[in-house]
């Protein structure tokens, strides 16, 4: 019965929250005997920090400071010593487009849950108008759907499991309406979101909350020499990237909201030095997709340089490279695989090597 199923699920969530709060509410005298026999802190989280850092550094290029900051927070989470009345952590990623803000969340989801889509994503541009805020906070009492408390949130992905944190991403935060921002303020403050009707509660206390923003992106691009600097008559103050982003955030959001974010990270613009590494990451993703065909694609340095030169656009970061790889590598590779299948020749268990002939990529085969 749906009603009983919902009640059981609510009871289980309440028990989980109560267990998390149990040690927090102990007085020092009561906590000491329980802690004395433990020579090492016991944590309910079992994820591998070394593997997570390896995945982040292997897939996110040119953002070493951000990765180090994320890993410091992940260490605190893994030790399970954070405030149980708040989300496990809250991050705001700022920076130009195509620098890896959303990709960082995907990589972390894959490292923690084995699935790059194992997180609740909310595109805030869909909540730009006030009357769309109900999609996040639920319909008010008396309106259609208020009893069900239906929202666009995925409760299972937010709450995670006992040994794995949930992940939620609020993408392009600056586009959200003020009502949505106020709802998120409560989430960051106490880890709880109660829908407008009061019929349902979402717990973010076992979740890592990520937010992204493009505020200050144009100024950051100017600082990196990607776009033209401010015109005559405009005096550009010497600010660091984080200072510039913080100034933009305080102009858009109330100080009490910004003050509740644990970590604000400013991503670097992608420079030419990182292009070969980005191409290598994209080739690695393509090879993972080729596994189902028992094929492996070899791409040499010459081909990588060719793709990097074709696809790099300072304004678009890594996304321009992805489009170029799709157009100049994936399209001809797809034609090659289909033509091989049509002629009856098998490419299974073979290594396919991409070769540059003039300005065109061709493919040759060799036994694996």
TrEMBL record:
GO MF entries = ATP binding; ATP hydrolysis activity; peptidase activity
Q: What is this protein called?
A: ATP-dependent Clp protease ATP-binding subunit
Q: Which GO terms describe its cellular component?
A: cytoplasm
- Ranges for domain Clp ATPase C-terminal: 270-363
Query: Which organism is this entry from?
Result: Paenirhodobacter hankyongi
Q: Name one GO biological process term.
A: cellular response to heat
> Which residue intervals define the domain AAA+ ATPase in the entry?
87-234
Xref: InterPro entries:
AAA+_ATPase (IPR003593), ATPase_AAA_core (IPR003959), Clp_ATPase_C (IPR019489), ClpA/B (IPR001270), ClpA_ClpB (IPR050130), P-loop_NTPase (IPR027417)
Per UniProt, the keywords (alphabetical) are: ATP-binding, Chaperone, Hydrolase, Nucleotide-binding, Protease
